[in-house]
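User: quick one, sequence for these tokens?
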């Protein structure tokens, strides 16, 4: 829990205490000082065991560019550093939103050896060497199903025509960070972390390697709306990389045979939020967070001109650690089935709030061991779930 959230929770509990007689009056500041709060910059949440930048993970030295995604520590919630990157202009390739360019191994038109694929208009490239005719760039490959270039969501360097380069300004109010290791979507507003949402990025298999969601920097270039994926309906799609959209967790559209009324059933896919599950898109929770944010909020509030920047952190080579045992979680002892990250939650009725606190270290003990993670307020994973995340994180980099 961040310091501000913890302080809010502490004040909320104080308001529920009986008011003492004047002779027994205790200063609020004295009570708050007794609460064990993390120091600024510390966190009790699950974080990377060690932090690495994309440059370090790819065996490259720092590039020397100011406020660069490739020098940003993945998984480290440094709000100031993240915001500087989120608001910095990007370089994209000119072209239609679903058009893709193959980067060449050598800066020659005759070179037919390709190192990766870049999506025009939305995918940012890291400019390494600019020449008159050709420019050396870096990105995570966006190869799609059927691509002749079989570099699936891995970092690469290659040459593109300099005439294709175009610099784009980005929105200065909002920005998004998607962490593929934690399967969380972080919403930033004006330099501060506003809210955290559960998401599901691509889940590749041996026969579908193209389903992996590429990391990197992207622009949210268009609001495409709802679409069908087989029998599933995906609403509020927002394009960030060719066929990769940020959208609501999919649902089944069911029709009552008697009334003809249609309803949406989210149970099939909602249970997988917080882990890889999609065909490459980023599925996002529909339930409101304690801050009131959801996929509908993103659809309604993110700015379209200039585009919102989306940062996606890769998971290759990273390891997720455990939350601190003293981290406070919350539950409703009157029949509650979930555990929560905060004492109030949009999915809990007001009469049960504030909920009862317990420690993360007690999560495997009764009565807490029967509780499931809340789908709205993004509480921490259990230790066994973190172990599974680390075991499955076996993709190989370059």
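Assistant:
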């Amino acid at each position: 829990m961040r310091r501000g959230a913890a302080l809010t929770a502490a004040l909320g509990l104080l308001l529920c205490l009986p008011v003492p007689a004047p002779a027994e009056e205790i200063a609020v500041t004295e009570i708050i000082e007794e609460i064990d709060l993390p120091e600024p910059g510390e966190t009790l949440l699950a974080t990377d065991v060690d932090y690495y930048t994309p440059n370090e993970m790819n065996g490259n030295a720092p590039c020397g560019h100011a406020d660069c995604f490739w020098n940003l520590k993945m998984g480290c919630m440094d709000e100031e550093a993240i915001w500087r990157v989120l608001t910095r202009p990007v370089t994209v390739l000119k072209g239609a939103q679903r058009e893709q360019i193959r980067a060449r191994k050598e800066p020659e038109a005759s070179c037919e050896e390709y190192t990766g694929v870049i999506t025009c208009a939305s995918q940012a490239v890291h400019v390494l060497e600019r020449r008159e005719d050709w420019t050396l760039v870096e990105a995570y490959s966006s190869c799609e199903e059927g691509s002749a270039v079989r570099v699936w969501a891995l970092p690469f360097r290659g040459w593109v025509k300099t005439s294709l380069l175009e610099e784009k300004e980005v929105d200065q109010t909002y920005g998004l960070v998607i962490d593929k290791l934690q399967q969380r979507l972080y919403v930033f507003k004006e330099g501060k972390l506003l809210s955290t949402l559960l998401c599901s990025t691509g889940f590749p298999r041996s026969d579908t390697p193209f389903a992996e969601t590429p990391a990197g920097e992207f622009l949210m270039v268009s609001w495409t709306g709802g679409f069908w994926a087989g029998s599933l309906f995906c609403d509020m799609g927002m394009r960030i990389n060719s066929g990769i959209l940020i959208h609501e967790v999919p649902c089944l559209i069911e029709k009552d045979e008697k009334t003809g009324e249609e309803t949406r059933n989210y149970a099939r896919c909602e249970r997988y939020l917080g882990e890889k599950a999609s065909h490459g898109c980023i599925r996002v929770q529909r339930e409101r967070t304690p801050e009131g944010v959801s996929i509908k909020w993103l659809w309604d509030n993110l700015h379209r001109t200039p585009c919102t920047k989306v940062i996606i952190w890769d998971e290759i080579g990273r390891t997720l650690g455990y939350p601190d045992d003293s981290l406070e979680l919350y539950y409703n002892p009157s029949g509650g089935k979930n555990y929560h990250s905060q004492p109030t939650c949009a999915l809990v009725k007001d009469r049960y709030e504030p909920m009862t606190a317990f420690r993360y270290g007690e999560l495997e003990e009764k009565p807490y061991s029967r509780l499931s993670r809340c789908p709205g307020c993004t509480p921490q994973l259990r230790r066994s779930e973190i172990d599974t995340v680390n075991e499955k994180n076996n993709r190989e980099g370059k």
